[in-house]
Design goal:
five-stranded mixed β-sheet; 3 helices; UCP028470_steroid_isom-rel; single chain; alpha+beta
Length: 175
């Protein structure tokens, strides 16, 4: 049986990106580069469950990363072992493949909008956001088009940050 919870989660951890000296605050839209990270201040694992609003905000963070046009910034939101099953491409199972996919996808300046969603909190360190989203794409000639798709994001709390473990997207069938 799966239960939905709305308890808040607070993790006060910062990460130091190895070799860069940069510190990123957990819970912000700034995701550390996909470099090895060392925990600067360890927090006890939380037993509190994330709220549905916290999980919903992860899509907003991902959509904001798309808006940067930087495929590495988008890939930073995925775990190193993440699986991406995109709408119009082959399965991607490593960072290089995910970056490659977004390098092409971002050329159309996608802007996503959730149309319908169901969020299921599986525990203090995992959640699923699934539903329907629509992308507005800008074609090379400046005209816009839309694509309706089904999606599933599986998130895991790793090293104090919520990251995408699995992302599946497929076009909504017509008819």
């Amino acid at each position: 049986m799966v239960r939905r919870y709305s308890a808040g989660i607070a993790v006060a951890t910062a990460v130091l990106v190895a070799g860069t000296g940069a510190t990123y605050a957990v819970g912000t839209n700034a995701a550390p580069p996909a470099a090895r990270v060392a925990v600067a201040s360890a927090a006890q694992p939380s037993t509190q469950l994330p709220s549905r609003a916290q999980i919903a905000a992860l899509f907003d963070r991902w959509n904001a990363a798309l808006a940067t046009g930087d495929p590495n910034r988008v890939a930073d939101l995925y775990t190193p072992d993440a699986v991406l099953l995109p709408t119009l491409s082959t399965i991607r199972t490593d960072r290089a493949g995910i970056v490659d996919y977004f390098r092409t996808f971002l050329q159309s300046k996608p802007v996503g909008r959730i149309q319908q969603r169901v969020i299921t909190v599986l525990g203090p360190t995992s959640a699923v956001d699934t539903g329907l989203y629509q992308f507005t794409l800008t074609n090379q000639d400046g005209t816009k088009s839309t694509v309706d798709a089904r999606y599933t994001f599986v998130y895991a709390l790793r090293g104090g940050s919520w990251l995408i473990v699995s992302h599946h997207s497929s076009k909504v069938p017509t008819g």
